Amino acid sequence: MTIRTLRDYGQHYRPRMACLKNVEVFVVEMQDPKSGVKGADQKLNVTIIPHVINGQDVLAWIVTKMKVTTEEAQAFGTMLVAYGYIYPLQNHRKLVLVPDSTLYRFQTPYFWPVQKWPAEDIDYAIYLARRNIRKKGMLEPYEQQHYDNLHKWMNPKWDFIVMQATEQYKANKERKKPDRVVLDCQERAYWIVHRPPRRTHSAMDYGLDRLIDPNAEEVTGDITREIHSVYVPSVLLSFVKFVTTHHNHDPFLTTPVPSNPWITDSDEFWQLNSRSVDIPTKLSVERWVLSFWELISDPRGRVDFKLFLKKEHSAENMAFYEAAEEMRWGAASAIPEKSQFIFNTFLKPGAPRWINIDGRTMGLTVKGLVVPHRYVLDAAQTHIFLLMKKDTFYRYLKSPVHKDMQKRALVPAPHVFTDAQLEANVRNRNPGISPILQWQQEEEEKAAAAVAARPIDVKAMVATNKLDRK
């Protein structure tokens, strides 16, 4: 092993598992009785532990063997302790090489990282259950937390785990006491590396691949088939389904058409997808089909849906939904006025735009309007939303209104700009629509919608137009 390799180990605290095979050769050489680190028997409490070494001897041996500085040798020694090749006998949670008389032992090769046997939760549960039996319930705080969590997660298997732990505990009692102490230290050193306490750095942490196999080659293929081959939470399947469905509509996954305005400085993409456009793009119309929420979230899609509701003589449903949204997110000072307007327009018996909801929901809503607040219309709004989502939305997708929009939708051609054209786009960059003008436009649209939704006073119309009552 060269100096450069050692420095790589010191700087990159997480080397690949393949590199650890070279470290194993080095560790085996450290244990050589003639040329390795000298060990001796050490009395720990009342038990004599064989082949004990101290940190100062380990550090000196590495400096002499590898011809490196003390700092480099200590970094390499700390890596050996962090990966579990050497473990401390007393302060087992401190996985660093201390260059003094701190006692260490070499780990048995069975527990070396390159053995590739995974650190399963069920094995850790058996170890903690056996340790709990031996300690009579006096586990360390982090071990007790792991024990409780595993007991909760593996409750159906816990009888089997306790039975295995009991049998192993009985088998260990037949061993000699020094052997029991050494085996306990080896197991504890292994699990402190693979199941460290919270907020403790672990050298075996390989991110998402740690619990799989760090040595396995990357598998490419159909992600859906790979996910279905193992048990995964349903939320992950839902996420994959969502990404697959919205892949063509995500500008991070698919190149925007006609071009990305942030790269080409051409605002045609924003103009084609603005809320006031007469004919939307084909991609926007295709997105309306994905769900009812996608339809009403797009301002242009909501306009098209309102046109269909008007022909269906059910425009009051969307009008009530928008009025409830405006009351929920509007100013608090306007809530009494808006609640009175909503009651007179949509909920009052004989209202000009009376909505059809069940009697229980209507009663709760009307009763809540006595002392109105932002969320008093939630029940009625949810009822209307589900009604439009489960019934009206699917009739809209089959209607001539939507089919005609699908035929007229625009398919813009992709832009192919040269370097000179890109520079010209930068010089002629359009500042875009002013937010103030856009806000004024939205306010005018809301005012026009409020006038259209206002109840019609027949008496005033008769007086104004001087109609003959006969």
TrEMBL record:
Classification via PANTHER family: LP21163P, REGULATOR OF G PROTEIN-SIGNALING 9A
Organism of this sequence: Oncorhynchus kisutch
Domain of life from the UniProt record: Eukaryota
RGS domain span: 291-406
GO biological process, one term: negative regulation of signal transduction
GO cellular component: cytoplasm; neuron projection; plasma membrane
Molecular function in Gene Ontology: GTPase activator activity
Name under which the protein is recorded: Regulator of G protein signaling 9a
Keyword terms of this UniProt record: Signal transduction inhibitor
SUPFAM superfamilies: Regulator of G-protein signaling, RGS, Transducin (heterotrimeric G protein), gamma chain, Winged helix' DNA-binding domain
Domain DEP: 33-108
InterPro entries for the chain: DEP_dom, G-protein_gamma-like_dom, GGL_sf, RGS, RGS6/7/9/11, RGS6/7/9/11_DHEX_sf, RGS_DHEX, RGS_sf
